[in-house]
Amino acid sequence: MPVVNQGLLALHRWTAICVAILGLGGALGWGLNLSWLRTVLPGEVAMNPLSALCLVIAALSLYHGSRARVARLAGRVGMTVVLALALARGLEHLGLWQLGMDRWLFPSRVASSGNAEMAFTTCLALVLFAGGYLLLGQEWLPPGAPLIPFIGVGTLGLTGVMGHLYSLSIVHGPMAIHTSLALLLLGTGGIGLVPRGRLLNFLSDGPVNPITKRLLPTLSIVFIGAGWLLMLGWRRGYASAPSSLVAFAAPTLIALGVLILMSTNAWVRRSEQRFQLLFHTLPVSSWVYDRRSLRFLAVNRCALSTYGYTAEEMTSMTIGDVHPQLLAALEEDEPSSLSGRTWRHRKGDGTVIEVEMSSHPLDFDGHPARLVLARDVTLERRNALELAKYASDLETLNRELDAFSYSVSHDLRAPLRSIDGFSQALLEDYSDSLDAVGKSYLERVRAAAQRMAALIDDLLNLSRVSRAALKRRTINLCALVDAAVTELRTADPTREVTIEMPPNIEVTGDPSLLKILITNLIENAWKYTGSVSPARIEVGVIDCNASEGQIQESPDSPTYFVRDNGIGFDMVHANKLFTPFQRLHSSRDFPGTGIGLATVQRIVHRHGGRVRAEGKVNDGATFFFTLPKKGSD
Amino acid sequence: MLGKKTILLVEDNPDDELLTLRALKKSKIHNEVVVVRDGAEALDYLFATGSFSDRDPTQLPQVILLDLNLPKVGGLEVLERLRAHPPTSLLPVVILTSSLEEIDLLRGYQLGANSYVRKPVDFDQFVNAARHLGLFWLVLNEPPPRV
After folding, report:
1. Both A372 and A423 in a single domain?
2. Contact status, residue A213 vs residue A202, Cβ threshold 8 Å
3. B96 in A contact zone (CB under 8 Å)
């Protein structure tokens, strides 16, 4: 569907309505035998009933011209009928045949009224209009082609109207005044139907339209009015034909000049206002300076507030006052030497700011000048520098942390080995000199050393989880669960735990991190179902749109869960679960370091996902987590 | 070559040295254990240089138990130099260390360690590990041919 703007849409509707009124008026004149409706003015030629019919059909087609397919099809059928009628009557005019078409409708009234034939120009205009209409939207034609017949129709109509206006029967011939007017309107409406009807674009909004909108109607009135007056004067014998011509030319020329000047001035003023507004509201310092004197010619508000001057102060300064360093660059007169780097500018209070500039030569009221845009990047620069410093600090810190963890891993364990090993040696080699209490103390020393070793391992794991680079792959979560369960079963073959899970849960993530994640969750579930029979661990996926999943994620990120029927926990403490060293159960009942779930959370976060827990005392716990495919690292 | 299967223990921590020896003894491994206390000494012993210059360099241990965190020359560097030296290039080396850092594991295997064992804190486990190591490297495993 070609683009037809709103102004043009309305145009063909309104003209169609007017044409319909005119055509119906003519037809009614015949039907009701009202001669003023047939001729408008007494003694003038009348609108032929067939013309009236053709006009009404044309008006209907025009009205629906840009409507849906059915209406357009009806329009085409109507216009084909009009084309046939007008063509037949035209050929009758040329003497090809005698069909008596003028008297097809209301024959007796037409016969008695005399001057009521369907004029040849009417036939021609209607043929042109019907032809143009039928050519609309034909793909083998350039889209603007139907403009030509429509302009023709309008011209024929206007000629008729002018003939009547100036009472020149030789001009209008046997075409009735309302027929002429209707044809003028038809032509105009037809132009409105043409897609991209450039001729009538002034009806839409645009910079030149104030001129054309005002000029065209005013000039039409001036020309036609002046012509009419002079014609009247010449008829009454006040002036000769040549002097009338001169009298016509002079005032119309003056009127034309005045109108053009007024319109362009108004337009220039408006345009100037617009650009002033743009210039002053620009959130970037901007000014124009004289390239010879280096004086500021215009300075926008942003520049005044940035540099801390009043408009008077600034326009009495040269750019050297703001930026001495600039002068050297200007001597090269190379815009490229100004753009693409930062400059140090001095503000009114003496402080220095950094700016990025772009500059364009222009002619300013006859001065060779330059438009400069200077963006204050002081803060930006400072932030960038600070950020870079933070980044490098962070990197150093990370390296130190790496070294620290390494040392912890290695050096902190060695004394523990000694504590444990020599306690054991004491127990073995000196058991005779130790009583039961002494031995139990040594056992406690060993247990403590081993517990601390477990703590160190868990802490290291936690820090490794944060530091390791993330390598995403597609893996089966269930295989990880299987491995974890197998290990637990080997360590504790007496436990009977049912594992429920689908055969395959495909996820994307770092294999070694996900292994730690699943191992931690399964070990937890295994541990806390120790007192329950039958123990059950369930692993699965839930659709995130289902009511159960409260984690709001995009649909491509399902929620996975590990559920057990163990001793559960009180939801009041749910927020403590993922904090390192926070435990909800005593280590006497359930051994552990309190770092496992913190590690789980960190792994999920590193994958850009979220984790949460649901539980009830003595009624199991469920851990939900997501692993978005493209998460933040 | 003589039939005595010795073990070379490279360990700087005297406690760990004592514990390792005790664990080996506890596991009924009565082979001679030579202890050196840093990387440089280990290389001197193996290449028969420095304070070991009067040693017969063809007498090589059955297996080396190598700690990683060593003064002077680190464990990984010892391994690297061993592998670059043809007589010791195939010598079985077991890394015995506290570290479980991925980078150590990776470098250790890359440089041609034959096995990597973490020293457990629990002495019972340590004894267990020592027994397995002794059984495997001194009894089950066939050493590479001498070159």
Report:
1. no
2. yes
3. no
Among A422, A449, A460, beta carbon nearest to B121: A449
Note the ipTM here: 0.83
**Residue to substitute from A410, A423, A459, A460, interface B, most B β-carbons within 10 A:** A410
Q: Which of B67, B98, B121 is the mutation pick for testing A, counting most A CBs within 10 A? A: B121
Residues of A in contact with B98 (CB under 8 A): 409-411, 413-414, 417
Q: How many helices (H) and strands (E) does chain B have?
A: 5, 5
* Model confidence pLDDT, tens digit, residues A46-64: 899 999 999 999 999 888 8
pLDDT tens profile A538-596: 999 986 554 444 555 455 678 999 999 988 888 888 878 888 777 777 666 677 777 88
Asked if residue A185 and residue A36 are part of one domain, the reply reads yes
Summarize pLDDT for A171-222 with one digit per residue, the tens: 777 888 889 999 999 998 888 888 754 555 555 555 556 666 677 777 788 8
Structural domain range at position A485:
469-626
Question: Which pairing describes strands A352-364 and A342-346: parallel, antiparallel, or unpaired?
Answer: antiparallel
Beta bridge partners of A476: A506
* Closest by CA position to B35, among listed B15, B53, B54, B56: B15
The A residues from 421 to 480 touching B (CB cutoff 8 Å) are 421-425, 446, 449-450, 453, 457, 460, 464, 468
Cβ neighbours of residue A116 closer than 8 Å, sequence gap 6 or more: A38, A45, A46, A47, A48, A102, A110
Whether A52 maps to a domain, the answer reads yes
What is the domain count for chain B?
1
A411, B119: Cβ pair inside 8 Å? no
**Cβ–Cβ under 8 Å, residues A559 and A622:** no
Are the beta carbons of A411 and B13 separated by less than 8 Å? no
